[in-house]
Specification:
Blueprint (H helix, E strand, L loop, with lengths): L1 E9 L16 H13 L6 E2 L8 E11 L5 H9 L6 E9 L10 E10 L13 E2 L6 H8 L4 E4 L14 E12 L2 E8 L6 H14 L6 H8 L14 E8 L4
Parallel strand pairs: 3-10, 5-6
Antiparallel strand pairs: 1-3, 1-4, 2-3, 5-9, 5-10, 7-8, 8-9
Length: 248
């Protein structure tokens, strides 16, 4: 028996998120199906980040156990032949038998991309959130500074989430103008359900002038989801980096 780690990239448009859901297409479900067929045994992967419906990833991590004799590094090539075109394995490697991606200290970086132009560009509609309303990047950047550090992010968590604590740490939060896009980059130890999308929605409210930058502090202190901005659409969000601290 060996444990294999996969680095998985996917376009989440057609999927109801990572996690298995009866009757719905999910990334986890596609991986289980393809691996089970390839290795001729029942495989159930364990994912590091349970991305939401419609969210994309460049580097999500999953592990699984197998008795198959195929070398771990070769599994990525064979598996990609069996997966849909919107899911691709970037690498596969054998890891220690007790390695569990959700039990390791890690840093995750998400990017939320906003297409801020007069009209929508159809070729970018699946990977950015479009708004024609001008956004003040300087004010958004000022507001972003209040999120950095360890805080109780209950105001930025979907009410349906079931978690032991809503305290999380954000290491960096940057807001950059890249051509006709505004990119919100968030690096943290972990994120609550819809947390990054609610942060993005709140920063856009600041950019539109509906909230002052300093209002973010009081929103965090309130620990009340109703005080924060709307949940931004999933299409703009991508998991872009996943680092295990032991490797940094």
């Amino acid at each position: 028996m060996k444990r294999v780690k996969l680095v998985v990239a996917y376009d989440g448009t057609a999927y109801h998120g990572w996690q298995l859901q009866p009757g719905s297409a999910t990334i986890e479900g596609e991986l289980n199906r393809a691996l089970s067929a390839l290795l001729q045994e029942e495989i159930q992967v364990i994912g590091a980040s349970r991305t939401d419906s419609g969210v994309h990833a460049l580097c999500n991590v999953a592990v699984f156990d197998t008795d198959a004799r195929i070398p771990a590094e070769k599994i990525s090539y064979a598996l990609n032949q069996r997966l849909p075109e919107d899911i691709r394995i970037q690498s596969s490697a054998e890891v220690e038998a007790d390695f569990h991606p959700r039990h390791c200290d890690s840093r995750k970086t998400y990017e939320y991309r906003i297409l801020n132009t007069r009209f929508l560009l159809p070729t970018r509609r699946l990977y950015t959130h479009f708004t024609y309303v001008p956004l003040d990047v300087i004010k958004m950047r000022q507001a972003a500074a209040y999120f950095v550090g360890e805080h109780d992010f209950k105001s930025f968590c979907a009410p349906a989430a079931v978690v032991e604590t809503t305290v999380r740490t954000i290491y960096e939060l940057a807001v950059e103008k890249r051509g006709d896009e505004i990119v919100i980059s968030v690096c943290g130890s972990g994120f609550l359900y819809n947390m990054v999308r609610i942060i993005a929605g709140t920063l856009m409210e600041v950019g539109r002038g509906k909230l002052a930058p300093e209002a973010v502090k009081s929103i965090i202190d309130a620990k009340d989801r109703q005080k924060a901005g709307p949940t931004a659409p999933a299409c703009g969000l991508t998991l872009v980096k996943y680092e295990f601290l032991e490797d940094i």
